[in-house]
Specification:
13 strands, transcription regulation, alpha/beta, transcription, sequence-specific DNA binding, HTH-type transcriptional regulator DmlR, D-Maltodextrin-Binding Protein, domain 2, Arc Repressor Mutant, subunit A, nine-stranded mixed sheet
Length: 301
Amino acid sequence: MDRLTEMEAFATVVDQGGFTDAARKMGISKSAVSKHVSSLEARLGARLLNRTTRRVSPTEIGLAYYDRARRVLNDAGEADALVTSMQSAPSGLLRISVATDFGVNHLSPVLGDFLQEFPDITVNMVLNNRFVELISEGFDMAVRIGELEDSTLRARKLTETSKKMIASPAYFERYGRPARIDDLNEHKLLHYSNAANGAVWKLTAPSGEKRQVRTAGWLTVNDGQSLLNACIGGLGIAYLPSFLYADALRKGLVEEAIPDLPTETQGIYAVYPPGRFTQPKVRAFIDFLVEAFAEKGPDTW
């Protein structure tokens, strides 16, 4: 007899507390369930169930076997679900969390193409500047920038962005331009309050030495676009990703504070709940973003 069917019959008898209810649960006859369990006991050479006229219960050996058998059956069920899922067309509601600046500038422009390609998916994109709890808050995935906190979430890198310290020409004219990292202690810094490192800037000196700048900020904001606006307005130096400042830099509205420093990079990731397989709608969107960002090229970021 089929080993998995024997296991399923035995585990169902234990779950249902008897052969009659197990037969009803499995949709087969009571005698068939009994035959499967008897075959399993004969193959193992052990009695797994105590049978009386009133009740059925697992023996000590049967209880130990039940725990392992149930795991095997659950794994087999997940394997079947994986195949079914991978063959089904992506569909349903996709809830995404993304930082406001990145969502407005880079996700919104490509959503139309995604929805055209996958018409059975509907998207609810929530723009915010905090790390949401995906599972408890009902999100299917999030796009996060920078170092990922230790987490049970799964992650896939979509692309990366460079970071530079920038300020307006007017600021440099008024306060001077820092020549080295230590000079930042004498300048007005603008901080992003939602950054994982808080008010700490991680920089690399021309020598390759890793440095940290902990100077208190003159202005702290939880929105990257607001920091860029403050830079353009001459309020101070900000440390921002290039997807925010690139256009302003090309137009001459901001300049790099210390051009000699090596460029720092940050990863941009899709994060999603753990599991043995990924929902088709989530997998479809992540694959789409990887391709869309690759087509834009590194100069975009």
